[in-house]
Amino acid sequence: MTAEIHRDDLASKTGMWLFLFTEMLLFGGLFVVYTVYRYRNPQAFHLAAEELSVFIGTINTIILLVSSTTIAMSITAIQKKNKKLALMLIGITILLGLAFLANKYFEWGSHIREHIYPGSPVLTLRGHGDVLFYGLYFFMTGLHALHIIIGLVFIGFIASKIMRNKIDSGNYVLLENSGLYWHLVDLIWIFLFPLFYLIT
Amino acid sequence: MNTQKEFGEPGYLDYKGRYKGLFSWIFSTDHKRIGLLYLFSILSLFAIGATLGLLMKFELIAPGKTIMGPQAYNAFFTLHGIVMIFAVVIPGLPAVFGNFLLPIMIGAKDVAFPKLNLFSWYLYVTGVVLVIISQFAGDGPPDTGWTFYAPYSFRTTGTMLPAVFGAFVLGFSSILTGLNFLVTIHRMRAPGMTWLKMPLFPWSLYATAWVQLLATPIIGITLLMVVAERTLHIGFFDPSLGGDPLLYQHLFWTYSHPAVYIMILPAMGAISEIITTFSHKTIFGYKFMVVSVLAIAFVGYFVWGHHMFTSGMSGTALYTFSLLTFLVAIPSAIKVFNWISTMHKGSIDLQTPFYWAIAFIFVFMIGGFSGLILGSLAANVHLHNTNFVVAHFHFIVFGGTGFAFFGAMHYWFPKITGKMYDKTWANIGLILFFIGFITLYGPMFYLGFKGMPRRYFDYDEVFHAGNIISTMGSWVLYSGLAIIIINLFASLKGGAKAPSDPWGGKTLEWTIPSPPPVENFTETPVVTKGPYDYKQV
Lengths: 200, 537
Prior knowledge:
The structure holds two protein chains of two kinds.
Chain A: H1 9-40, H2 42-51, H3 54-79, H4 83-113, H5 121-125, H6 128-163, H7 173-198
Helix pairs in contact in A: 1-6, 1-7, 2-6, 3-4, 3-7, 4-6, 6-7
Chain B: H1 2-7, H2 23-26, H3 31-59, H4 70-105, H5 114-136, H6 160-187, H7 200-232, H8 245-279, H9 286-299, H10 315-343, H11 352-375, H12 377-383, H13 387-417, H14 423-449, H15 464-494
């Protein structure tokens, strides 16, 4: 209903940062739960963590770190008016995101083949610590994967805007915001990775 | 209509946009129209919640079954709680009056993200629809109470999923409103309006917005965990799988106690505006008011444990939470002192909103002091889960936020609608409301102290007298409420035209026509003075 178009890039970015705070707290609640149960079941968490594939986890960490770089580079490319390069870098980001999901799919698949999933009789028999470890593992990596998917949709939407020249060197705050979101998703993984794979 | 004649610009109610009729409202990104969308949704839900309360009170008029059995009673207090907490009092003042007035009071044309603002309302409606679905789908309505305590919330056969997810969606709506307000206040204040020239209602919304933003995600994730618990049997809070139900309580109250401040802070802000305006005097201790509102918001994060004194915590935790709870009383008391001091030597204009403010201070003090009784460890063990607790939080949440909501409604009604209401009926409604309120909740302090537990459809014969008084109070309260609402609606048609400043207010909303034009200000205002400049009067 407003008659004039009002644009305030700093406001958009502030809004995005505030939203990221809420995301951090959302996962923060889960980190608290993880901490409590790890403290109560140190032995079971230790043994269960050793069953996860550090190799796949490391690959996925590298994938996300590289994808964070590429999306950051695409912002610079847009600033330098290189639309083609920006789109290519965004394309790489999306491919890396998909690769992450594919890895996750195979990783989850292998657990489920071994009858390790929340509510499975095999897992329940293994005792409380294992139930909680894998419950948290599936819930937290699942929620994180959901964020990856949302991020990919967001970035895809940005790419289509760049193609239609709606985002250019004079107006790229949306791309910056999607980059911020992607970095957050990356950052959360940086915490999930050691919690589940490395601390054994 | 009239605005157009005088100022050459249509008021926001008459604006002809791209859509007509209902669509010009539900597709509008105008903060004023969104505020009214919230107002009507919240009033409808409030009517539902109040009717549920009335029926529950009727059940308690005599021991044994009167109109409903235990299961129905459980479902009633659960729905009453979910609707009143998540859909009425939490969004109440921020989403209605905050949306309508925040941009105007800081001299802006709209909030920072108008589309996101409309999206929050859609989320709100979605959440409400989910809660309603939970009543009719599956094996019966939820019966856990609004707190969804584990492990009952994933063992009961009631339809929990839509209700829990609905509460999650309502929380998300609340987060986005808070985010929008924060950015609006940071970026869109009029030229010259420094932080310490901002009126107190925007200040209280600012503090509230931080609480909405930083506390709500915790309940979000907790409710998602309950959803996962019910669908996937993960075991987060299930003792038979190694989980800890106490952890659920911690996470739940980590949000739900700060949520109490989401309810009360904007109420305090609105009361500050009303008292200043009708005392025609600068607010006493403006800076203290600002600091105390921020202090309450801050300390409010660290007191959640006082809901769990009997749940099992270490002694150190008990003492700490109790001490912190007492600390919250200090900034709250500062506010009360400053309101009273503002009235001192003011030239008081006794109008309906001012009466509401006085009533607010009265019930808020009773609610606050009973909170201190509950916050002390020894008394809490005796009073926990009794009617005393119910009386306490209704004095704060209904007496505090509810009175402030109706006070704000009578204060800003001329601005919002461009009409004046009938003062006599408004005052009669208020008096009945007040008498009914005290009669309804007053005896519950006594009943609780004598040991009558909360959340039971039945009680021992010794509690009969108190319950009869309480139930009769509910009738008076309800009729007062009806008079208030009918009077306001009648004024929409028959009320006299409101001038732009009917009360002699000094904040920016009184400088523009009633109802405000679409763009709020024809010229962006430049602020040179503090918000309550009464020195010239």
